[in-house]
Amino acid sequence: MRRTVVTGVGVMAPGGTGREQFWARIVDGKPAIRRIQAFDPSPYRSQIAAECDFDPAAHGLTAREVRRMDRFVQLAVAAADEALADSGLDLAAADTDTDRIGVTLGSAVGATIRLEDEYVVASNHGADWHVDRRHVLPFMYQSLVPSSAAAELAARYRVHGPAAVVSTGCTSGIDSLGHALTVIEEGSADVMIAGASDAPISPITVTCFDAIRATTNRNDEPEQASRPFDADRAGFVLGEGSAVLLLEEYEHARARGAEIYCEITGYAARANGFHMTGLRPDGFELSEAILHAMDGSRLVPEDLGYISAHGSGTRQNDRHETAAYKRVLGETAYRVPISSIKSVVGHSLGAIGSIEMAACALVIQRGTVPPTANLTTRDPECDLDYTPLEARDADVRHALSVGSGFGGFQSAMVFSGLGEAA
Amino acid sequence: MRASRAFITGLGVVAPTGVGTTEHWENSLRGASGIAALPEPGGGGHPAPVRTAGQVSGFDADAFVDSRLAVQTDRGTWMALAAARLALDDARLTPDQEFPFDLSVVTAAGSGGNAFGQREIQALWSQGPRKVSAYQSIGWFYAASTGQISIRHQLKGACGVLVSDGAGGIDALAQAHRLIRRRTGAVLVGGTEAPLSPYALVCQSDQYGISRDPDPCTAYRPFGGAGFVPGEGGAMLMVESEERVRRRGLRVYAEIRSTAATHDGWDPAEPPPDGTQFTRAVREALRRADCTPDDIDVVFADGAGTAVGDRQEADMIRAVFGGRPVPVTVPKTMTGRLCSGGASLDLAWAALALTHRVIPPSVNLDPAAEYADLDLVLSPREAPELHTALVVARGTGGFNAAAVLRGPAGAGTDTG
């Protein structure tokens, strides 16, 4: 079996762009959530979000690229640039085979900001159903079909392996890495530029979650609004961002002397076949995904040193995943440190799964478990160790991350320190 | 890879050529195109963004989607639900008698729930947030069809959604094959696209090569014309493991021998300078199928319809097949280019061709002199020795994919 390792990490998250600012922020447990600045949020039920202070020019994007790319693509490019630089992989080197380097990018909602903005202008604020093509930006096809984001990355780095966008809603970020893992394992590529990006902070996306009261309405105290596993939670907080990991076949990484963060030792996805937005309280299908992800690396519950929770901060999610952990891990579920960094960086839909996997890579490398911010009054139904408020030192050899999303998707992935695979 | 073989056991077609395999195949052999003029936009007096498109005129969504589900979903998902139902029925697969974790669905997605999304954005901006549907969060997004099919049929294995524009149908098939190798028993796979709502047409109208020709007979003529037309619809395919095919005693349409994908990695706003990566995808698919070019009996071409795309495809065919005149067909000349639905429909066409030993035609072609060396199939062609088909697809942005299918006789099961 070909093994897959992580050799580069790039993160564009709320509260500071770049991997190191992201890490400092989640370890501090200081929420990067504020009243929405991207537009006037006063007409909406939920008026807060985790926004990135992202300057595309500062990240090397040209004016032409900014004009062509929706914000979610811009964030992905910045994260991918950082991951590649971190990996030390020299794409221009004579012995780098760009036919063997591919791209997967997860995104739940793609270019919704640009699609909405252009429609609003061209339709005269929604007055016209038939809009005039002369009033929209060029390049709109690239916003209509989100595979353009994978194409942008492949083009930027002139790489020619398999490329695709993975769009399984809020598990896209895990499933994108899972797809890349499979592509490397089967031998279709040696390196995958793999991650996810979403920029959903737009009126239509805020409204669509308002309409089903999935997001919080604690608008008066943004920093305390994302409260996974807390009795006083009121829904999730929308976020944006991107993380890209450089995934590499182990021998390939070793041959070029790459520094290795960790190995992907397990991945599984299941569907709950239950409801597009609802979750069964027993967490059965999520537990099946976790079980199979752990099987991939032949882990027993005691091996897990950290669980990066989905932890969206909705009541149904927090209870659903708590039940899933108990079903898979038994009594050990009470002893594994769990946390949700969504308490700090919000829920960036398809992106967050990759951002959380980036966090897991750093947890294994640096021996610190980031906390769940705002967890002051635990939901009595959620009685595991969610690492409230304060980061902890811990020697984590295996980290599990899970995701759960609209459409019934349930995904789980395991990162392990190198040499820790059973 | 030979260790776990995957077979196409059912087809569900919802396309401009018809709803259901029988209607689709009969119309295909008659050369009955589903490309027609689009209605002129009412009111504003501005030009139509696109003049002609492949349209599924006979699609009765009510026959497949109950009214409660219909209000939660877009036309693209109605078509996906219909195609899924047809493919399951065709394979005589009853999910409620199966272990749900043994079944999966993987779709290729493209532009999402267009009409649904436009309607809700319009409601938001003209009437305010309270007028937006409670289903916007699940109606528009790219995972809607996979999620709804999974729930409706209790397909609880690893489900997926891949987006690689026109190459997506083959990438999704590749994912289905991977799942079969990893012991999923059966995977419903394919894509349907519904991109003919007004705003989606506007967003397509600036594409390189999109046709402004109002005549449905001349708007899309690969290898000699000057443009392509979009279309709606697609197909779902039932893919099952060899073990299941034997146990269930199924007839099969075809075996999936291989898939491969590459990316041009060129300027995203420009076509690539040559078809190097396209050719590499095809050669890689042949290698993985343990095939030589001489084993290929028919090519289902991408048929870009643009000067650059057509030339690169012809160059690919010449490079791979040398001087051998392999039959080349572009049946999507009857449907237009269906984005995520296109390659799935081509796979269905190839599966039918292998089963019936007939190559469906390309219609309306007027090949240019520079393509005189290609054996373009312009009318249905009986091919008693049709055993192996190559299906190729390209997507806007630089995606290339290829698949090799082997027909029921060559597939090596005794159930054909």
TrEMBL record, chain A:
Matches recorded under Gene3D superfamilies: 3.40.47.10
GO terms, molecular function: 3-oxoacyl-[acyl-carrier-protein] synthase activity
Gene Ontology terms: biological process: fatty acid elongation
Pfam families reported in the protein's UniProt record: ketoacyl-synt, Ketoacyl-synt_C
SMART domains attached to this UniProt entry: PKS_KS
Family that this chain belongs to: Belongs to the thiolase-like superfamily. Beta-ketoacyl-ACP synthases family.
Protein name: Beta-ketoacyl-[acyl-carrier-protein] synthase family protein
